[in-house]
Task: inverse folding
């Protein structure tokens, strides 16, 4: 009989074309290579190599054995790797409620690529988490955040609505306009309060609890909405227009973790660095429009 080590030495000799080179490759003395091949030939009752001063030349049986030996060695390595795999690691990821899942797509893809053998568990608000995709104004004091993107708020208009002909909106243009409210968003709550202070009162046609519902109602023509610029990516029947204001409203979104968890902080930094290229590409695409999503690094 022969063992896997003998097959390994045979493959090395076949590929290197000499006993000397095979010995160097396998970090073993030349006599051990020669003895293993001779034992292999005895077990198979055939010659595997023709030996000459110029090196080794595989016989017909040597050529026949080579692919089978390579396959058997590959299978044995796969068996070993299968038992050496680390246990599955669970990463608890929270995505802020007013962020679209499409924006989290690059993060999730990079997690699977960068962290081996993981299971991602999406968590609800106030549940324990490892990573959090969150806007800066919702980040808590004990959380570390790396900025991923910054964006303006724009007006979303149904594609067949008369207001689609406006090139931009002033705050006064929202007065009595058919409007879809987003009360779950802190910035939207602040925006509504500021409008009321200026006696600007939109005609609220619907109040929603999720971004997807808001976007669906805009597409249906129920009314207009004020939302982050990234929400209009991929929409077919929605037109966006810049909103001129002096309120300083912007949304800065980043990847966060607990500041005391140094391993998580390191992972956040690595992921943010990898994701910056993705959002930079989106920035270049959006620069063709009236507003661009700006990408930066957290201080």
Result:
């Amino acid at each position: 009989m022969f063992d896997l080590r003998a097959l390994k030495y045979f493959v090395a000799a076949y590929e290197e074309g000499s006993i000397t080179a095979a010995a160097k490759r396998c970090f073993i003395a030349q006599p051990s290579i020669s003895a293993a091949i001779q034992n292999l030939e005895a077990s198979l009752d055939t010659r595997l190599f023709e030996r000459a001063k110029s090196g080794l030349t595989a016989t017909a049986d040597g050529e026949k054995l080579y692919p089978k030996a390579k396959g058997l060695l590959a299978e044995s390595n796969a068996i070993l790797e299968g038992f050496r795999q680390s246990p599955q690691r669970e990463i608890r990821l929270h995505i802020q409620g007013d962020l679209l899942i499409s924006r989290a797509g690059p993060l999730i893809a990079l997690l699977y690529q960068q962290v081996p053998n993981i299971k991602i568990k999406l968590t609800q608000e106030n549940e324990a988490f490892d990573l959090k995709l969150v806007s800066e104004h919702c980040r808590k004091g004990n959380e570390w955040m790396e900025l991923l993107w910054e964006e303006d708020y724009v007006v979303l208009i149904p594609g067949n609505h008369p207001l689609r002909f406006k090139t931009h909106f002033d705050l006064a243009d929202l007065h009595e306009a058919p409007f879809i409210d987003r009360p779950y968003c802190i910035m939207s709550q602040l925006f509504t309060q500021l409008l009321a202070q200026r006696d600007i009162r939109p005609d609220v046609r619907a109040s929603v609890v999720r971004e997807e519902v808001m976007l669906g109602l805009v597409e249906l023509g129920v009314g207009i909405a004020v939302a982050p610029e990234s929400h209009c990516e991929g929409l077919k029947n929605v037109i966006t227009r810049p909103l001129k204001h002096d309120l300083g409203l912007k949304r800065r979104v980043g990847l966060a973790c607990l500041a005391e968890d140094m391993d998580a902080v390191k992972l956040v930094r690595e992921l943010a660095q990898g994701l910056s290229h993705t959002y930079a590409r989106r920035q270049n695409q959006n620069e063709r429009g009236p507003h661009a999503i700006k990408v930066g690094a957290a201080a």
